[in-house]
Every structure is written in structure tokens, then in C-alpha cells.
Amino acid sequence: MASKQEQYGIPYTPLPSSSQPSQTVIVLTPYRRHRRPSFLRNLRCSLLFTAAILLLSAAVYCLYPSDPEIKVSRIQLNHIRVLDSYRPTLDLSFSLTIKVRNRDFFSLDYDSLVVSIGYRGRELGVVKSNGGHLRARDSSYVNATLELDGLEVVHDVIYLIGDLAKGIIPFDTVAQVKGDLGVLLFQIPIQGKVSCEVFVNLNDQKISHQDCHRK
Asked: How far apart (Å, rounded) are the C-alpha atoms in residues 202 and 91?
């Protein structure tokens, strides 16, 4: 009897045996980046914050308005005479050169420069000069002459007689400037002052010593 394969003409392929080797499966896990440690992030934020504070402080320091710098560049005694030793009167003349420096980054308009002279804390005379304009970070020199003709010293006559005996008379000079600082659309009032103690030698008609400081 013929087989069914030969009867119907269908090719026959035997099934593979169970001894065929098995397949290997590899499972890949997703890759995760390692995060930076938290202290590095904190350090970076701290550095940025410190840099911002330093920049802000520098801007405030540079732009904050300050009073002008007043300096006595030169002071010269022209002459001094004391008349009538019992009721002393003074003939006195000083020439001064005052330096006015604008330390700000804005322009400065000052109304006037006032220079006064005194003896033993009492004002004897005042001279006033015209105002001016200073650009940012600029300086200007102003000349002033203080003159006293026949000024009678009443209140401190005893001290003056003692100073005449020593041959040296101490005087006080004060230079003061007032003005407005132009900051954007605003005008900020400012002022500067310098005080000097001047010791005048009567014998050689010269200044023996002077000491100046800003106020």
C-alpha cells in the first residue's frame, strides 16, 4: 500500500528535534546620568551671589554723591602790623589758593567759596569769591585774599598782648564751598570745608607753621 505522501504528492519535511540550542536574551536597563553633588550647586550659587553683591556695592560706592574735597594749596602772609599795644588794632593780609576737587562721577555747580579768618575762635573777617562749575572728577583752583585794615581786637586783647610778647600770633582760617551736584534729573546740595591753624612770626613776617584738616 502506498504511503499518503506518495498518494497525494505533497513533500514532507520532518519537524526539528528538541535538541536545537536555545536563544539567549539580553535585557538592557535605561542609562541614568549621575547628578552633581548638592554642595557643588550650593557653591556655584554662593559665588554668583557674592559676585552680584560686590558689583552692586562697587556701583553704589562710585555713584553715591559725596562732598567736594577742599584743600589749601598755598597760603602766604603779605603783611601784618599791630598798632597801639594798649588797644591793639590789626593790619593783616593773607593770600590763599584753594583747591576744589569734585570726587563724584557727576558735574558740580558751586555757588561761592567763602574764606574766613579768626583769632582765638572769634571770626575777624570774611572774603567771598564767585562760584563755578566742575565736571565729573575734575579740579579747580580758586585764589582769595583776606585783608584786615585797622581791626580793633577787644575780646581777646589779653591773649593778643601775650602773643605779641612771644612774637608769634596764631590765626584760624576756614574755607567753605557749597553747591549742587547734578545727579540725573536731581540737584543734591553738598558742601565741603577745610580749616587751617596758621602761626605768624612777627619778626620775619612769615608763616612759621600751619596745620590744615578737612571737616
From this structure: 12
Q: What are the Cα distances from residue 141, in Å, to 27, 69, 99, 102, 179?
A: 88, 12, 5, 12, 16
Per-residue pLDDT tens for 18-52?
Answer: 555 556 666 556 655 555 567 788 888 888 999 98
- The β-bridge partners of 190 are 179
Q: How far apart are CA 32 and CA 114, in angstroms?
A: 77
Judge contact between 124 and 115, C-beta under 8 A.
Answer: no
For residue 61, give the 3-state DSSP assignment: helix
Strand order in the sheet with 89-101: 69-83, 89-101, 139-152
pLDDT digits (tens, 9 = 90+) for 136-157: 889 999 999 999 888 887 778 8
Predicted model pTM: 0.69
Q: Give the position of cell 538592557.
A: 28
**Coil, helix or strand at residue 46:** helix
DSSP assignment of 126-160 equals EEEEEEEEE-TT-EEEEEEEEEEEEEEP-TTHHHH
- Nearest one of 151, 152, 166 to 201, comparing CA atoms: 166
pLDDT band at 63 (very low <50, low <70, confident <90, very high): confident
CA 95 to chain centre: 30
